[in-house]
Amino acid sequence: MRRKGIAAVAVVILVLFCLVSCAGKPAPVRTGVAPRAPSEPDALSLLARADPLAGSRQLVLVVTPDWGSITGRMAVFERDAPGGPWRRVLASFPVTVGRTGLAFGRGLHGDGPSLSGVPAKREGDGKAPAGAFALTMGFSYDPKSLGFAPKLPMHHVTADTVCVETPDSRRYNAILDEATAGPPDWVSPDRMLRPDGLYKNGVFVAHNTSPVVPGAGSCIFLHSWRGPDSPTAGCTAMEPGRVVELLRVLDAAKNPVMVQLPRAMVGRLGPDWGLPDMDG
Question: What backbone phi and psi angles, to 5 degrees, belong to 113?
Answer without folding.
Answer: -75, 160
